[in-house]
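Q: Convert this sequence to structure tokens.
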Amino acid sequence: MPEGLTAMDAMQGANSSTVTGNRGLVVEEPLIFEMDSPGKTAVDLPPAPNVDDRLGGLRRKAAVGLPGLSEPEVVRHYTRLSQKNYGIDTGFFPLGSCTMKHNPRLNEKLARLPGFADIHPFQPEQTVQGALELMHELARWLKAMTGMPAVALSPAAGAHGELCGMLAIRQAHEHKGDARKVVLVPESAHGTNPATAALVGYTVKSIPATDDGRVDLDALKAALGPDVAAFMVTNPNTCGLFERDIIAISQAVHDVGAYVYMDGANYNAIMGRVKIADLGVDAMHINLHKTFSTPHGGGGPGSGPTVLSDALAPFAPLPFVVEENGAFRLVEHVKDPACAAAGKHPFGRMKGYHGQFGVFVRALGYMMSMGRDGLKQASDDAVLNANYLYARLSDVLTPSFPAPVMHEALFDDRFLKDTGVSTLDFAKALIDEGFHPMTMYFPLVVHGALLMEPTETESRQTLDVFITAVRHLAEKAKSDADSFKQAPRLTPRRRLDETLAARKPVLRWSPQTEG
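A:
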């Protein structure tokens, strides 16, 4: 091994034919600890003054363990690592059910305005009138778009919004003295739906799907009864299909005194085209961070406001904003006169403060700059792009369900039968073609699923390049399975044992003895 190189490539397998391990101007970057030069530092600190030891014998006896590097070495190391990132600013994300779309930088600028970015939830209300007005206006937009009379802004994410809706449903039943125990959930639901229902204390029963990927209405009706509190449905569902029986579903659920919770994670496919209230829905969360412009992924930030029907509006959680005599204030207590005046019976609070305010700013900026027509066009374009992928790839891949689709196109691995290439192999090969893989093995109701969501922000030119790559790989799988087993070959690291990495992660670096 040439002097100065590390053992990483020996572990990963040869990644380059160059002596340095670099590929053109893409530098083979070692761990920062492997670049350590003992005694080297990027800063000069004055000697520590002589003071009495107050550490009670706990003073460190060994070195801190941080690597010694110069300032240029530190800057170059982290810059090189950043160049290995793949993000929406560098390429297309075909991930299904994730809505990884470009978000206008204008909304980022708005969220960083000092009057919004530098405020604190404990400030007196008279000093944050602009922030309260923004929340009030955001609520107005969300209610107008969905046709629902009430919205809770405080939920901090999609699953938190689900929890809000289900707590409101439980509160509504308890207020009537009706102790129901069962929540019905379709097989194709997001996994958080049954988890949320169980967390609230309900027993969850599954409803099967029809052969065309939608809720089996007859099976649902057979399962409904006086013990059912709610039916939770994702629409459009996780298979990328609109639940065309949603109005009949809502009527059947209401006939037994239960409520309809609709998962709004895929609201980007129908916003501006349908009023949620017209579907008979009682509660729906909206992922502001997906549909309305906040870059998301990696754990946050998120926001899941939940709109509520007339039947559930009295049970919306605290706090909420009201306008009185030209000023805005927060209603934070059940004994507040505003609660009694409106006949409200809040189930409590969802979190300590008032919601994810930075996401509110971005969302309202997005809505106001797009307008009603722009929001409708966004959903139209998302559906158009998904159906374009479906049409261009259906002859080489295997669609899981008949067209038309909504915001995402779902294929499965039947086209790989007898090729020796797995779904994972196919997705890894796509990385070598310069694309982040589509979602694999989800939804679970489809074996070997390949779920693609192009979003409204991708051009036809981008989609055509992606389609060309997918078609090429589908043809190649028939004759060259071995190359797929080695993919990806052109990345800074080759294929890892992801199962082992998840179960036995190495979280601490330690020096390795070269043999």
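DSSP finds 16 helices and 13 strands in the chain.
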